[in-house]
Amino acid sequence: MNKMIKFGEDVEGYNIPVLNEREIRASAGILFLFVFMSLMLVIFKQNFLLIKYVITLFLTDFIIRVFVNPKYSPTLIIGRLIVGNQVPEYVGAQQKKFAWIIGVILATIMFIFLVIVNAYSPITGIICLICLIFLFFESAFGICLGCKFYSMFHKEKAQHCPGEVCDIKSKQDVPKTSKVQILIVFGLIAYIFIVALLFNDNFSKKPYDLFGIYSSTQSK
User: Fold this and answer.
1) Which of 159, 158, 200 is CA-nearest to residue 13?
2) Which residue has the higher pLDDT, 198 or 177?
3) Which residues of 93-115 are buried (b: 16+ CB within 10 A; e: fewer)?
4) Is the Cβ–Cβ distance between 95 and 150 less than 8 Å?
5) Is the pTM of this model over 0.70?
6) Are 19 and 95 in contact (CB under 8 A)?
7) Neighbours of 66 (CB within 10 A)
8) What does the alpha-carbon distance between residue 132 and residue 149 come to, in Å, rounded to a whole number?
9) CB-based contacts of 6: which residues, under 8 Å, 6+ apart?
């Protein structure tokens, strides 16, 4: 029973329990996809059915992660199957637990409002947006935003962060960003504004059916 209810894995060479960041990112990507799709249905179709299912599954999944064992989380298991052939990237379990507790709190509030009370408000909209941002940063960039708050509530420093960002004292040469690269980013922003200014009317025109396939289908 003690082995079943546990947070993190004991891996040789690590003095603290760790988790595989690769499967966590895969899991975050899966959750992001479903939360995003359900949110689009709410915005464009006023259909709340999918988001109620997603919130229920989201909350259940995170409760298993935090209070039972991450290895039994359904989405983490799917993530493990997806990235099983990749070399694991181990990260400290404690900061992840703190981040997932935040997830449990947010999901519980959403569950109470949308599923139990069956009501929506700016509160549910803001929480849903926060969850999307958290999941996107985790899946796309490997940045655990919830982990950033760990040091605010704990005296000990987080160990084995993704990309070793909490251990590296100075950046290596390759990840450093030069002034020229910064100028290129600002140049891209200026380029987008110029393109929008010059071609917005043309871009706004609806494309026509080149081969007439869609038009002929509609006429039948």
Assistant:
1) 159
2) 198
3) bbbbbbbbebbbebbeebbebbe
4) yes
5) yes
6) no
7) 19
8) 17
9) 17, 69
Token pair in block for residue 51: 């988001």
Q: Please say whether the beta carbons of 55 and 114 come within 8 A.
A: yes
Nearest of 116, 109, 118, 94 to residue 14 by alpha carbon: 94
Which two structure tokens, joined as six digits, stand for 134? 């958290």
136-146 mean pLDDT: 91
Please give the torsion angle defined by the CA atoms of residues 138, 139, 140 and 145, in that order, rounded to the nearest 10 degrees: -10
Q: State the DSSP string of 163-177.
A: GGTTT-SS--TTT--
| Half-sphere CA count of 114, side-chain side, radius 13 A | 28
Angstrom distance (rounded) from CA 136 to CA 142: 9
Query: What whole-number distance in Å separates Cα of residue 178 and Cα of residue 28?
Result: 31
d(C-alpha 102, C-alpha 114), whole Å: 18
Strands (E), 55-174: 90-92
Q: Is the pLDDT of residue 46 over 90?
A: yes
Q: Is the pLDDT of residue 170 over 60?
A: no
**Which residue would you say has higher pLDDT here, 126 or 13?**
126
